[in-house]
Amino acid sequence: MRAPLLNSTEAELPISQQNHNIVRLATAQALAGANSVVFYATGAIVGNTLAPGSALATLPVTVFVLGMAACILPFGALARRRGRRAAFMTGTGAGVLTGLLASLAVVLGSFSLFCLAAFFGGAYAAVALSFRFAATDGVGSERRARALSLVMGGGVVAGVLGPMLVSSTMNAWPEHTFAVTFLAQAAVAVIAAAVLLGVKSPAVADHTQHGGRSLHEIAHQPGFRRTVFGGAVAYMVMNFLMTAAPLSMHQHGLSLQAANLGIQWHVIAMYGPGFFTGKLIQRFGASRIGAAGLLITALSVLAGLLGTDILHYWLSLILLGIGWNFGFTGASAKIIEFHRPEEKTRVQSLNDFIVFGVMIVGSFSSGALLNTFGWNAVLWGSLVPVVAGFLAMVGKNNTARG
């Protein structure tokens, strides 16, 4: 038996308000997504310039992920006690701070300050990922997967905006490459905050702040842990490969513009399917779509193993983005079947905390693996978790109960 998705503790919003929220959250996803794109496109390159050794080149990206993992539970607690808007404003504030600190770090040549900026960038990314769940608040069960995937689809704009910010501003201050880029990133975070102010959540009874089952009971539902693991693998492998790809392209003599374009198409591929993933989930089920995403991720690895020409990197990154969308959206849509309205922020935060915690390992190890053994080792190393995640998503007990 599935957990009730809407009950007396959470009122269903009017359709017009649901649509209004989806548009605003999708817009905010696009703007906030640019924060992540900028950091993923520049983090390893700036890190390689500022770090005391090449082995630490991807440390800022790892710290970015650490910021996501460290902040997701506090943001969830803040949303539970003060509402989603409080979490949104705190997160976008961290996004503004990210750009300002990163720009200052470039000017001063400070690796430690750049890593601090990365941590706040991760905090912003953490709250941005809660937008997908916020879109399902007060939405009927038949529209929830669709609402979630449409908000993720808003990230397509991030795939254009992020690289455009990098390309158009990275040399605006010739003495300090990327300094102006990070200032532009801070300005975009301010705009995102203004957009999020218009999102309205349904009224929830006061007792739900402390109600609901224990996390232990929720986590022991058949299929819950399999779903969390499958989503974590989809995100970790995407991060594992995307972190190393720009630096690997640089090492193989490809231009920064080529790397930026590859990341741009990768991000478009990550979020573009969001406009129809929800319909696919409604037709085939969340678990099947999640498993399909992991299969596509495996194809991206095989594409990367074919060679190190620019087209090999681009094809691999595009498939990686599509695989992430199907895998992560499928897992996210499945997660909402395991909790009741009064449990949502705790369960969603726990899920994302585990996802980001797993990502930390992948993010840091990808740089060390790339510098020590090369790009092919990074690719082969990603196949084991992909296979394990696929088996988890197709497990017989991947069902929800109340």
Automatic annotation (TrEMBL):
Keyword set, alphabetical order: Cell membrane, Membrane, Transmembrane, Transmembrane helix
Superkingdom of origin organism: Bacteria
Listed InterPro entries: MFS, MFS_dom, MFS_trans_sf
Listed Pfam families: MFS_1
PROSITE patterns: MFS
Keyword Transmembrane helix: yes
Listed SUPFAM superfamilies: MFS general substrate transporter
Any one GO molecular function term: transmembrane transporter activity
TM regions (residue ranges): 57-79, 86-105, 111-135, 147-166, 178-199, 228-248, 254-277, 289-307, 313-333, 353-371, 377-395
Domain called Major facilitator superfamily (MFS) profile: residue spans: 186-402
This protein's name: Predicted arabinose efflux permease, MFS family
